[in-house]
Design brief:
The protein is α/β, with parallel strands linked by helices. It is built from 14 helices and 22 strands. It has 4 domains: 164 residues, Rossmann fold (3-Layer(aba) Sandwich); 92 residues, 2-Layer Sandwich (Transcription Regulator spoIIAA), CATH 3.30.750.210; 119 residues, 2-Layer Sandwich (Transcription Regulator spoIIAA), CATH 3.30.750; 59 residues, OB fold (Dihydrolipoamide Acetyltransferase, E2P) (Beta Barrel). Helix 9 packs parallel to helix 10 and helix 13 runs parallel beside helix 14. It is globular and about 60 Å long. The structure holds S-adenosyl-L-homocysteine, iron/sulfur cluster and FE3-S4 cluster.
Length: 478
């Protein structure tokens, strides 16, 4: 089948940070053919990666709902399949390759099935070239800046039936008023910034998500107000670096001011992700302390506790500076739960570096953490370094780190036993359908017995048992 390139990925172009970003309203009008071809049909979407991708899935489902397409989890009944990919580590990419392979079978069963590859992986030219060559059954590719073009691409495809590639390396405008179909009825994600300008040397995100740019506060507040009106219980404000909010806007709000405004809208729970240590402002601590509905939980990635490694990672702080910010936060919000991201195995990291990380992590006293083994990403500066540490050694150090961190996780979980916690009920627990699970304000998972009509509500749960990664409790009737 012929391949038509509308735009092609280029990490060199994606690296450049120049253009001014404007905001425009979504306006594509799908053809009548598209509507009649798809009305009543199903879409299967598999999203990998972070919340930014989940929010993109919700936009895609929103767009498709305007032509009468509804979601399914059953691949065999899908007329459109979308793999919304993540490129942050190699194992994320491996899973996507496996799933693309699986679709050969479904394509064979349903010749009309349209397979689409989108998300962060597609922003890399070598991946697109590789998939094009190996998997002729992938029909459409589009990048993270092209989500709004989904219906346009489907329109092109059904009229010409050729493979389409539409991966803009430049971010283009911020598109507002896109339709959305949210995946959860109680918890919602709201983008406040897109992209990242930090260029940590190991990370692919600044290339796949482009320049850091802020949405206008009025658009963010409009989306949040709508969510409050619809009865949502929790909003999480999203950005790769939320503290950079507003830097690119003339006369706009700072992140602290925006947070304050959103908190005032009266959402029961407000969270935000992710904070970058040296951009994190004292005013944010004050706003968090001031509002009961801002959860006393902060995801605060450190990545490493070794100053040498932090420098090589291009992180712009020392472990001392990091701990100083933690001290300030704990001083004003003593009951705050902190979590973090840590990478083990950056090129040439020594055993002593990892010991420093353990030491600093114990001082920061995390309640939870996401830990990763370094994965070289094509095109990033760190990927060019020659590494002298074996994978086996990295795995050993990784396990040692996790074990050390778990002491604090367990301690914090233990402290909660006997207390009554407010829990937002998510749904049946993963392991046992008879049991419900939900999150405390401090973002700990609690499992307890209860009826499914509690899903989406905030209830009181007494904690009866603690484990390293979860809690057990019982509902308290007031
Ligand atoms: N903007 C956020 C999240 C970025 S991706 C932040 O800065 O924290 C989420 C996490 O993935 C990062 O915090 C980092 O710990 C991890 N990560 C990023 N690139 C990686 C790589 N090449 N190998 C292993 N882990 C990586
Ligand atoms: Fe990646 Fe660093 Fe940006 Fe986070 S701040 S997305 S780790 S480059
Ligand atoms: Fe992955 Fe892209 Fe998010 S690389 S972590 S899906 S920004």
């Amino acid at each position: 089948m012929k391949v038509e390139y509308l735009n092609t990925p280029d990490m060199g172009k994606a690296r450049r940070r120049t253009s001014e970003v404007d905001t425009v309203d979504y306006s594509y009008v799908p053809s009548e053919d598209l509507k009649s071809r798809f009305v009543g049909k199903k879409v299967y979407v598999r999203t990998y990666g972070c919340q930014a991708n989940i929010r993109d899935e919700e936009t895609m489902l929103g767009l498709l709902s305007t032509i009468g397409v509804t979601p399914t989890e059953n691949k065999s009944e899908a007329e459109i399949a979308i793999l919304n990919t993540c490129a942050v580590r190699e194992n994320a990419e491996d899973k996507v390759y496996a799933e693309i392979g699986e679709f050969k079978h479904y394509k064979h069963k349903n010749k009309n099935l349209i397979l689409i590859l989108c998300g962060c992986m597609v922003e890399q030219k070598h991946i697109v070239d590789d998939v094009l060559a190996k998997f002729p059954h992938v029909d459409i590719f589009f990048g993270t800046h092209d989500v709004q073009d989904l219906l346009k691409l489907l329109d092109l495809y059904i009229h010409k039936k050729q493979r389409y590639i539409d991966v803009s390396s430049k971010e283009g405008s911020i598109i507002e008023n896109l339709p959305v179909k949210r995946l959860d009825n109680a918890k919602a994600f709201v983008n406040i910034t897109y992209g990242c300008d930090k260029f940590c040397t190991y990370c692919i995100v600044p290339y796949t998500r482009g320049k850091e740019r802020s949405r206008n506060a009025k658009d963010i507040l409009k989306e949040c107000r709508e969510l409050v009106k619809q009865g949502y219980q929790e909003i999480t404000l999203l950005g790769q670096n939320v503290d950079a909010y507003g830097k690119d806007l003339v006369g706009g709000l700072s992140f602290a001011e925006l947070l304050d405004e959103v908190a005032k809208l009266g959402i029961p729970r407000l969270r935000f992700l992710t904070s970058y240590p040296t951009d994190f402002k004292d005013e944010v601590i004050d706003v968090m302390a001031k509002h009961d509905n801002i959860m006393k939980y902060l995801h605060f990635p450190i990545q490493s506790g070794s100053d040498d490694i932090l420098k090589k990672m291009g992180r712009r702080y020392t472990s001392e500076q990091y701990l100083e910010i933690v001290r300030k936060i704990r001083e004003k919000i003593p009951n705050i739960a902190l979590s973090t991201d840590i990478i083990v195995g950056f090129p040439n990291e020594t055993y002593e570096d990892v010991q420093k990380t353990i030491d600093v992590a114990l001082k920061a006293d995390y309640s939870s953490a996401f830990t990763f083994i370094y994965s070289p990403r094509n095109g990033t500066p760190a990927a060019k370094l020659v590494d002298n540490v074996t994978n086996e050694e990295k795995v050993k150090r990784f396990k040692e780190l996790v074990k050390a961190l778990e002491v604090n996780f367990e301690k914090h979980a233990n402290e909660m036993v006997g207390t009554i916690q407010k829990v937002l009920v998510d749904g049946p627990s993963k392991k046992n359908k008879e049991i419900l699970s939900g999150y405390t304000e401090s973002n700990k998972v609690v499992n307890f017995k209860g009826s499914s009509d509690l899903i989406g509500k905030i209830i009181n749960v007494k904690i009866t048992e603690s484990h390293v990664y979860s809690l057990t409790g019982e509902i308290v009737n007031e």
